[in-house]
Amino acid sequence: MPAPASPTPAKSTTLSDTIRLQPPLTEADIRKLYAGDFVTLTGEIVLTAGLPTHQRMQVCIDNGEPLPIDITEGTFFHLGSYNEDHGGRFDVRYMNPTTSTRFNAFMPAFIRHFRLRMVGGKGGLDHASVEAMRDVGCVYLSFLGGGAALHTDAIREVVKVAWEDLVSHYRLVKLRVEDLGPLVVAIDSHGNSLFESLGKAANDRLPEILRELDAGRTTFAGKPS
Fold first, then answer.
1. 65-68 contacts: CB < 8 A, separation 24 or more?
2. 206 or 142, which is more confident
3. Are 48 and 170 in contact (CB under 8 A)?
4. Residue 5: which pLDDT band, with cuts at 50, 70 and 90?
5. What are the tens digits of pLDDT across the range 34-75?
6. N or C terminus: which one in the chain shows less Cβ crowding within 10 Å?
7. b/e map of 26-51 (b: 16 or more CB within 10 Å)?
């Protein structure tokens, strides 16, 4: 059931308030989260960093075919992973977030079709995705860019790897993780987006910043050389 049209005000939290989540999660679980919450994840997650992967997923949707890894009411993160094949057994050497806005064209449809509960990566998603997340009950989790060591340390098992013909980062991968995070709920299921609010705050301050810069230049120009 879609969330109310009026966004619920985002709440402020600290790392000491970190919420420990164990996927799979229900819509009711997701509706309890708000932009600004810190969370960790323990359980199974699905990830990829590839545009070709999203294109294949769209073909599956168009043709009514199942994905090789089911993500219905689950997680789908924009994380690149380097995995090595040891006689059919995969080991992940590292994983790191990629920019989610690269996939804006696909994500609203994916969120709605699969009724995704959690998506994420870095950089956020566009307004169409925010609306889709509000409709189905989904949050966007922001991963620390450059935090490969932190993210990789949480991996406990490679559950499944699909589309092995693609380069490692583009494969569809299911992992079991423990205490992955802390991650930030950057977009919640009520229409709140930290990316939008921070952008607005920056734009609101821009005139003041420009005035201060002008004043600084005037003062500097008036000093004797």
1. 67/162, 67/172, 68/160, 68/162, 68/163, 68/172
2. 142
3. yes
4. very low
5. 999 999 999 999 999 999 999 999 999 999 999 999 999 999
6. C
7. eeebbbebbbbbbbbbbbbbbbbbbe
Beta bridge partners of 45: 175
Residue recorded with tokens 């380097």: 82
pLDDT of residue 202: 61
**Residue 172 CA: distances (Å) to CA of 65, 136, 140, 175, 180:** 16, 23, 19, 10, 19
Structure tokens at 208: 């003041």
Q: What is the mean pLDDT of residues 90-115?
A: 94
Fold topology of 15-192 = fumarase (3.20.130)
Joined tokens for residue 156: 């406990």
Residue 156 has pLDDT above 60, yes or no: yes
Domains of the chain, residue spans: 15-192, 194-225
- Chain mean pLDDT for the chain: 89
Averaged pLDDT for residues 9-37:
87
